[in-house]
Amino acid sequence: MKLAFFGTLGLTTALSTGVMAQTELSMWYHGAGNPAEREVLVGIIDDFNASQSDWVVRLQEFPQAAYNDSVTAAALAGNLPDILDVDGPNMPNWAWSGYMQPLQLSEDAIANFLPGAIGRWQGELYSIGLWDAAVAIFARRSVLEENGIRVPTLDEPWTGDEFNAALDTLKATGDFDYPLDLGMADQSEWYPYAFSPFLQSFGGDLIDRETYTSADGVLNGDAALEFGDWWQGLFQNDLAPGTSQDMAARETGFLDGRYALQWNGNWTALPAIEKYGDDMLFLPAPDFGNGPKIGAASWQFGVSANSDHPDGATAFIEFAIQDKYLAAFSNATGLIPATSTAAALTENYKPGGQLEVFYELSAQQGELRPVTPGYIVMSPLFRKALADIANGADPADALDAATDAIDADIARNNNYGF
Amino acid sequence: MSAKSTSKLQKHTLAGWLMATPAVGLITLFLVVPFLLAFVLSFTNQRLVSPNPTQFVGLSNFEQLLGVGTLMLEPERDDAGAIVRDARGEPEYPRVRDYTRNNPDYLQLSGMRELAAMSWGENRLVFLARDVVFIKAVLNTLAFVAVVAPVQAGLALLLALLINQKLRGINVFRTIYFMPVVVSIVVVSLLWRFIYAGQSGLLNTLLGFLTLGNFQPVDWLGNPATALWSILAMSVWQGVGFHMVIWLSGLQTIPESLYEAADIEGATGWQKFRYVTWPGLRNTAVLILIVITMQAFSLFSQIDVMTKGGPVDSTQSIVFQAVQRGYVQQDIASGSAISVLLFLIVLTISLLQRWLTRERN
Fold first, then answer.
1. Quick one: pLDDT at residue A17?
2. Which residues of chain B neighbour A243 with C-beta distances below 8 Å?
3. Is B253 helix (H, G, I), strand (E, B) or coil?
4. InterPro entries this protein is in (chain A) (predicted)?
């Protein structure tokens, strides 16, 4: 009797110390309100917690709109979690500001990753993405063929002239409210993410990427002014809905047949395929002279600077970037898995899959937004310039204003360490 | 007697202070400290988050915000000296950016942009500002205040007079007029976005129906000419109920006997308003004017929800810019400088209003 009692006590103690020995790691994620993402992420965390006895990851979710502010506030208060997720273009700012520490992953572990899923700043790896996103022109084969418009391919995209001519042709049919929908309703990071590649294809950029210390002559140089005039023309000639487009029209306009073409991301590709089936095409960006470009980098995982357990946090991230989880995320969200081996495991990105084209788009044309801590200031300034030009502001003045504000910000920050 | 009561009060000083502590502490923490910090930070280059040390930069934040200049442009002339004219017969002028960007002869204008321009004989006089967005925000806010203060106060008074009657069911009307005040301004702004929507918004549909389809739909919030006034109309609608209640309380303090006396004298309705009601509302009027002015200067939520300062800066406001700089662009110093300027503007106007509405003996 006595023995049994002690035996039970000993067992309980052993169990509870076993639990106690696991160190808790906190993790923040931006996807609150998205059940599909949550399910996959919670699955990864459960698998990780069960796979070893050193660490327990605890998830806390935030709505995307409040996530960055929460991280900034937590950083000011010294309350950052161990594991963070970070939008690719913001990572350099967070690294520079001291929210994040370099990620101790071996180069072999990420060798096969899409370039857009790897977050590097000043030669160090800080973040790694389980997926990337890509943007394409959503179109219907039947509409293009009816109007005698060539279907472009990855190797032979539309030239700028061809694209403009196609828009004019589609407008002339009178069948559509607008020939092109750019998503001007979505006044967020969408603007720089989706539209700065057009500027780059014209030969301009948000900043001089040689020095990273000035935008003068790049954001307001001749190529950029040419882009500005083209951009303004889209709205002046009623080729695309402007900034007062409402979000509902953005979401349903192409599916309802009110827009002939739509510039949209692969995360909305599945409903389009469901609607149009084999007629649905995902076309590469037009080439305005400097090659077709699309934006790269989506949300990625990293380790916060004041984590007491970077080894545990790194272990979790290393666990999470297995191909099977990359594939699970892709199946749940429609996003592009970060490796080709994971792509082969997915429904949509395997050879012959419905979204296979996006993997190649991302691999071949993906261009990172400027990798500098100053990007977080460039982003709203560029968005404002694009909105102002669309609303009739002089393109040169609007781009000058953005250029001056970007340069002033860089100067105030001692060139952000460049 | 008096000495005794004083000592009694003195005995309770500590208790008094203790009771005031929570309020004083909170007010200090959330009002006094941020207020003083804004002054200090506006003279530095403080960032929201940055590994760089903070430095004092003197008045440069204010110089950046307030720098203005003028430039006289002469029309372009061809080789024969005749003025070059465009297709509409207007003279062509050189571009302002040729003078304000990398032009060693006009270094004092470097980095400025065009704010407004006017003809000056055959020349063109251009007003330049170093921070066009901020100057536009100030002008928009001033225009907003100048219209909202009298219109909202006037409408509120009208409503107060209407509901200050002993009619059956008058409380229903009081409730209806007061309802928008109870709803959060963010919710109201979201709803009015649908009302103002460009293609098939409620307002356009209604106007089209009333004019039998002759009305051309207006993109109320997407058009620089209408955006600020649309927001203004909504703000007045939302705020008018609150000030109606204040007017009403003022109206009900006016003794009934004064109206009875006026009736005996044979006064008309207008005379009763002019010589009884209005003088009796004097202090209420001062209060309402100052409150509306201050509220109108802090215009932010409507802008943030409905237009984000656009289109083309037509709805920028001072507070919206302070938040944009301080938080979105992480430039706390510049945001603080804007807050300090706003404080000085509101202080000046409030003092001016106090002086204009003072009791003249």
1. 44
2. 222, 310-311
3. coil
4. SBP (IPR006059)
Which structure tokens are listed for B127?
């007003």
- Residue B11 is predicted with a pLDDT of 65
Contact A380 B197 (CB under 8 A): no
pLDDT, average across residues A350-360: 87
In whole angstroms, give the CA distance from residue A14 to residue A24.
19
Judgement on whether residues A317 and A387 belong to the same structural domain of the protein: no
Signed CA dihedral, B141, B145, B151, B157: sign only:
positive
Q: Is pTM, for the whole model, over 0.80? A: yes
Find all residues with CB under 8 Å of B206, minimum gap 6, and list them.
none
Q: Is the pLDDT of residue A16 over 70?
A: no
Domain range B133-356, CATH class: mainly alpha
Q: Which of A97, A244, A247, A403 would you mutate first to test chain B, the one with the most B CBs within 10 A?
A: A244
Write the CA distances from B252 to B171, B247, B255, B290, integer angstroms.
15, 9, 8, 21
Query: What residues of chain B lie within 8 A of the CB of A405, using their CB?
Result: 329
Contact B115, B258 (CB under 8 A): no
**Measured between CB atoms, which of B47, B114, B310 is closest to A243?**
B310
Q: Is B214 on the interface with A (CB under 8 A)?
A: no
List the helix and strand counts (H, then E) for chain B. Answer: 17, 3
The pair of three-digit structure tokens given for residue A223, joined into one six-digit string:
């190529």
Return residue ranges of chain B for CATH 1.10.3720.10: 133-356
Task: Spell out which residues of chain A touch residue B308, defining contact as CB-CB under 8 Å.
Answer: 187
Q: Which two tokens stand for residue B126?
A: 């251009």
Print the domain residue range for A114: 24-133+297-367
Q: How far is residue B218's CA from residue B204's CA, in Å, rounded to a whole number?
A: 7
Residues A350 and A223 in one domain: no
- Decide: A145 and A169 in contact? Cβ < 8 Å: no
Same domain, A154 and A216: yes
Best CA proximity match to A131, nearest among A335, A281, A308, A325? A335
Q: Say which amino acid occupies A102.
A: P
In a domain, A200, yes or no: yes
User: What pLDDT sits at residue B84?
Assistant: 83
Helical axes B282-297 vs B332-356, angle rounded to 10°: 160
CATH number reported for the structural domain that contains residue A348 in this entry? 3.40.190.10
Q: Are residues A343 and A211 both part of a single domain?
A: no
- Per the listing, tokens 């699955």 go with A43
